[in-house]
Amino acid sequence: MKIAVLLGGSSPERLVSIASGRGVIKALRELGHDVTAIDPALGEKQISESELLSQGIGTNPPTQEFLEKLSHKNYLSAIDSKIFDDIELAFIILHGKWGEDGIIQSLLELRSIPYTGSGVMASAIAMDKVMSKKLFLHHGTPTAEWYDYQKDSSPRPAFVKKNISKLGYPNVVKPNDQGSSVAITIVKNESELDSALDEAEKISDVVLVEKYIEGAELTVGILGDEPLPVIEIRPHGGFYDYEHKYTKGMTDYLVPAPIEKSFAVKLQEIAINTFQSLGCKTFGRVDFRIGDDQIPYCLEVNTIPGMTETSLVPKAAASAGIPFTQLVQKIVELSIEGK
Ligand SMILES: Nc1ncnc2c1ncn2[C@@H]1O[C@H](COP(=O)(O)OP(=O)(O)O)[C@@H](O)[C@H]1O
Ligand SMILES: [Mg+2]
């Protein structure tokens, strides 16, 4: 099959995407597919695959200045160009804004090119943390109490005064629509709040402040309509930020998670129900923090989770007896079947 792997992109998760793409390209070639690597942020003029794939993730996301050289404005000309003329499937491995949020999916829809993963609306909802949390509550999925505001519409002091006292400290400040923990801060006291809100506002027009959930961090990968084994994430010191996510040895991953079987089954059930209630399909990952009350609070649904060979979904799949190459082929098949 002639497959375009879409990777890179213009979001702060660009380098994670390139790392994910590297493994996916290798697996697809091993499976016998005819693969082209395409970075839509480069537009019609693509660079060589080796140059594209050469950059490592690093311990911090790329700077805004670096990202400004790449533009989402190029996506349109890339998709509309002849590069895509005989492509039978776009394997989207872009993370974050413009890639995981329904935008590139809609451009591919316009060209009638089948693509992997969730559709336009589910991708857009899952990328929007506030919208997702509203739907979690609608469908009975517990989620941490939060307050959100529009960067320009509410004066910050009023928001802070009115709402933060109800959440207490620590709390968690997040941009509404980015991943990889970019611009997320665990705020320990009032003096740290303003700089955390500043950071989040640089990334997103909507910012949320969430109640801090003290307990274990568990995540459930999804493949088709089946949940994969639960993984427990234990970062060494600090929280599961960009550096802990992508630096080898800074986090322990326990799979299957050392939790009671009945709790694992319950969590898997909540994960698949939550994933499907947002309209997501094919593959993904649902993140949780477990409260002192043993309630699994859903943080978010990822529609294009990390796909390096050591990422969470590939780890969970391996634990279920599905090697990486087979996982990639399954994603291709499910996507073609529209599942
Ligand atoms: N409410 C919370 N309580 C405790 N830790 C949190 C909370 N929200 C987020 N975190 C920490 O921040 C990380 C990233 O948060 P998440 O909402 O999953 O955003 P991202 O899309 O960046 O992965 C989580 O994996 C967790 O370690
Ligand atoms: Mg997450």
What fraction, in percent, of the residue positions are helical? Answer: 25-40%
| Biggest sheet record | 5 strands, antiparallel
The structure class reads: alpha+beta
- Which molecules are bound besides the chains? adenosine-5'-diphosphate, magnesium ion
User: Strand arrangement, largest sheet?
Assistant: 10-9-8-11-12
CATH homologous superfamily heading of the largest domain = ATP-grasp fold, B domain
Strand content: 15-25%
CATH top-level class of the largest domain: Alpha Beta
- Unreliable segments of 5+ consecutive residues: none
CATH topology of the largest domain: D-amino Acid Aminotransferase, Chain A, domain 1
Provide the domain count: 3
Distance between the termini: 18 Å
